[in-house]
Design goal:
This protein is 26% helix and 37% strand. By secondary structure, the chain is an alpha+beta fold. The relative contact order is 0.24.
């Protein structure tokens, strides 16, 4: 089983842009933005939050087959990771989760403002209602543009 090192954890838990991809049993893809990614203490799973109003297909796909992929991209440097795995939990956020979500949203907003976006535009990207997802990491790839893009990372 893979374990996430400190360097990769720093990118995952930073103000990175986070996208979640799932698929139906008929291989129809679905993608949406996610917030508040947090690496578990054992470094083998990640939890994050997707906006509930846009999550119906994502949740249905995960309930059907559990397959999930995520991308984490530093919007200022384009350093990027892709993780693939199996969803093991779908639920509501706990009371301590909102501070973590807001910390990520603030960091993401600051990063995007640094590259020229207005904070009001970024704020319109999220909802105040979220679904919590937790997944076990099974595959890990460097997706930073350049000669190593697509290289599997073995931790």
């Amino acid at each position: 089983m893979l374990s996430i090192d400190d360097d990769h954890r720093a990118l995952i838990e930073s103000g990175a842009a986070v996208s979640v991809g799932t698929r139906s049993r008929d291989l129809v893809p679905d993608a949406l933005r996610a917030w508040g990614p947090r690496v578990s203490p054992d470094r083998r799973s990640i939890e994050l939050f997707v906006d509930r109003p846009n999550s119906q297909r994502c949740v249905e796909n995960l309930q059907d087959n559990g397959r999930i992929a995520m991308c984490f991209v530093n919007v200022e440097t384009f350093r990027a990771l892709q993780l693939k795995g199996r969803c093991v939990e779908i639920g509501d956020p706990g009371p301590d989760d909102w501070a973590w979500i807001e910390r990520h949203r603030t960091a993401f907003t600051e990063a995007t403002v640094n590259i020229g976006f207005l904070p009001e535009l970024i704020r319109n990207m999220w909802s105040t209602q979220v679904v919590k997802l937790r997944f076990v990491v099974e595959e890990f790839f460097d997706q930073t543009p350049g000669p190593n893009a697509g290289r599997e990372i073995v931790e």
